[in-house]
Design brief:
Number of strands: 0
Structural class: mainly alpha
Order of helices and strands: HHHHHHHHHHHHHHHHH
Shape: globular
Number of helices: 17
Oligomer: single chain
Length: 371
């Protein structure tokens, strides 16, 4: 009979795993809170300015870049869409000019996950994986706009389909959903902003510090999970096929009501090497679709045909974009990898990329088109 004293006690290993899980959950909460706090802080800077910009929209091209800049400023494509719906319902802007703003909002909301990828910038190998995983969201939306905006200007396919759906669903009624982020995170973020006296220059640095430490503890735990059973579960069961990954992104985003959070959360996982760029591409597409569900349900509550059409236009834009670029996914994936390798060699280019795509081009073209 074996001596029990020679058998290793499994309890320390179990306690260590439980502790690691608790640390990860706490880090995840801090990460989600930081994203919400960043959004709330930037709204203090830019909501009035954003509303003024949107009210100036008088052509589709201008609307596209206003949509990008406004969403970068207030860190919420849903908030941008809500402002647009209000202006359309009031007759300030037309549905035709509103649809490009929604397209621009899809691009602007991707800045969050691109900023999250910068956490890995000091580790070249991780950054080579993390930056493309953030950029794939940008690239898909840019490619979708490149194809669909000219079609919409001349043929109005999104306008026709969204108008048909708005008429079909008029009077149906909808739901006001309170997501877990609003319950668990938003009140704390509001409390922090209240404590600092609604001063964005105080709350924004707090948010960035929380983002750094939340990512640090998340990534540290993820590195330890590489090669473990957790990696097998993530790889095989959560991202085991394109349809499963797409549905995962759609469902998570519909539940938590934020594509920025859904796509930002996946960046450290790719950086840690648990999943690949090819696996998260359909997940990102699902997140793009999921973020439109809340707006549609909320618009149906209003009963306004304009609100309903703009909300459906957001969904149709994503569906058409997927129909074009998922069969041609080699293009966005290859572009993300090529740009990612260049940025990994010259990491300062990451800051240039963010500044050019999300600030310099939108601001420059808005100023040019408003002359």
């Amino acid at each position: 009979m074996a001596d029990k004293s020679l058998v290793p006690d499994p309890r320390p290993g179990v306690f260590k795993r439980i502790l690691r899980i608790l640390i990860f959950v706490a880090a995840l909460y801090g990460f989600l809170l930081s994203i919400q706090l960043i959004s709330g802080s930037l709204k203090l800077f830019g909501v009035d300015f954003a509303e003024t910009l949107i009210s100036l929209t008088d052509n589709p091209i201008l609307g596209l870049f206003i949509g990008v800049l406004v969403t970068v400023l207030i860190q919420s494509s849903s908030a941008t869409t809500s402002i647009v719906v209000g202006f359309v319902a009031a007759g300030t802007i037309s549905v035709e000019n509103a649809i490009p703003i929604v397209m621009g909002a899809n691009i602007g909301t991707t800045v969050t996950n691109t900023l999250v990828s910068l956490y890995h910038i000091s580790r070249k190998e991780e950054f080579t994986r993390a930056f493309p995983s953030a950029m794939i969201h940008d690239i898909f939306n840019l490619l979708a706009v490149a194809v669909l905006l000219p079609l919409e200007i001349f043929l109005h396919p999104i306008g026709y389909v969204s108008g048909f759906l708005a008429r079909a669903f008029e009077g149906v009624g909808g739901l006001k959903i309170v997501g877990p982020l609003q319950i668990a995170v938003k009140p704390v973020a509001k409390a922090i902003i209240h404590l600092v006296g609604y001063k964005a220059y105080f709350s924004l640095p707090i948010a960035l510090v929380m983002l750094f430490f939340g990512l640090k503890f998340m990534v540290d735990n993820m590195r330890k999970l590489v090669g473990s059973k957790t990696e097998i579960v993530v790889d095989r069961y959560l991202f085991g096929g394109p349809l499963r990954a797409l549905l995962l992104g759609l469902v998570i985003t519909a539940i938590i009501q934020s594509s920025s959070v859904t796509t930002s959360f996946i960046v450290p996982i790719v950086g840690a090497g648990l999943i690949t760029l090819e696996q998260i591409f359909p997940y990102t597409l699902g997140a793009n679709m999921g973020t439109t569900i809340t707006a549609i349900l909320a618009a149906l509550v209003t009963g306004s045909p304009f609100a309903i059409q703009v909300a459906f236009a957001h969904l149709i834009f994503n569906i058409f974009g997927i129909a074009v670029w998922y069969p041609l996914r080699v293009v966005p994936i290859t572009l993300a990898k090529l740009i990612g390798k260049s940025v990994a060699r010259h990491r300062w280019l990451a800051f240039v990329y963010i500044a050019v795509i999300f600030i310099i081009i939108p601001v420059g073209l808005i100023l040019l088109l408003r002359r």
